Amino acid sequence: MPDALPLAGRPVLLTGAGGDIGRAMMAAFARAGARIAAADIDPARAEAAAAVARDLGVDAIAVPLDVTRSESCREAVAAAVAAFGSLRVLVNNAAALAIRGTVVDLSEADWHSQMAVNLTGPFLMAKHAIPAMRAGGGGVVVNLASQLGHVGQAGLAAYGAAKAGIHNLTRIMAIDHAADGIRVVSLSPGAIEGTRVRSRFPDDDAMRAYNDQRHILGRMGRPDEIASAAVFLASDAASFMTGADLLVDGGYTAW
Is residue 4 situated within a structural domain? Predict the structure, then answer.
C-alpha cells in the first residue's frame, strides 16, 4: 500500500485518534509516510496514538481537542500547522457513542450532545482547517460517517440523523471548496469490532451474534480495514473523488 498510495511527508490532522479506529488510522497513515497530528479529547490517548506513528518512524504530535468547541478546533489546526508548516489532510474521525432512543424518548440534552460531536464537530474542524489548506494550495477532508447514515435502524434517531447529515455536509463542502483545490469525501463503515460496539453487549459472543448476520460477508469489520480506506481517500489514488461517500460496510446496506 505505501508504494501505491504515497502520502510521504504530507501533514495529517486526525481527530478521535485515541479510539480503536483512530489508532489503526495512525498506523496506516504512518506506514504511508504521513506526518500526523493525533488529536483526542483525552490528552493521554492522544499521546499514545502519536507514539504509534513515531514507533513507525514518522513525525507525530499529540494535540488535545474538544471538537464541540470552536476555539479548541482552531488551536488544533494551529498546532498542526506550527509543527509541520502546513495542513494537507483532515480526518474527522471523532464521534460520540450512539445514544439510543426514539424522538419521544430522547432528552433534548442527548439530542444536542449527539449533534455537537457527530455533526457540529466536523463542521467546526473544517471551518478552521480549510483556510489552512487553501493557504497551502489545497488538501483533502475525510469525514467519518456510517452505514447508518444510509439506512435506518430503530432507536438511533439522533445518531442516524447526524451521520446522514455528514453525507450532505460532505457534498456541499466539496462543491464550495473545489476551486480551492480541496477534495471532500466521506467514509461510511459498517459495524467494526472494538470497544465502542463491544460496550453495548454483555460479551463478544453476543456482539458477534447480533452484528455478524447483518453484513453479507458474515462478519464485522476490523479497524485496519477502515484505516486502509481512509488512506486511500486521502491519497492521490482518489484524486478524482470528491463529494462522494465510500461505503466499507461488509455489504450491510446491500440487503
Answer: no
Domain coverage including residue 125? 11-247
**What are the distances in angstroms from CA 127 to CA 15, 56, 135?**
14, 31, 14
Quote the number of domains for the chain: 1
159 has catalytic annotation: yes
Residue 15: inside a domain, yes or no?
Answer: yes
* Among 29, 159, 232, 252, the one annotated catalytic: 159
Distance CA 111, CA 98 (A): 10
What's phi and psi for 63, nearest 5 deg?
-130, 120
Cα–Cα distance measured from residue 93 to residue 162, given in angstroms and rounded to the nearest whole number: 13
E strands, the chain, in order: 11-14, 35-40, 60-64, 89-92, 139-144, 182-189, 245-248
The answer to the question of residue 125 being in a domain is: yes
Kindly report, residue by residue over 198-251, the tens digit of the pLDDT.
788 889 889 988 888 899 999 989 999 999 999 999 999 999 999 999 999 999
Show Cβ contacts of residue 147 under 8 Å, excluding neighbours closer than 6 positions.
188, 189, 190, 247, 249, 252, 253
Question: How far is residue 213's CA from residue 211's CA, in Å, rounded to a whole number?
Answer: 6
pLDDT tens digits, residue range 108-164?
A: 999 999 999 999 999 999 999 999 999 999 999 999 999 999 998 898 999 999 999
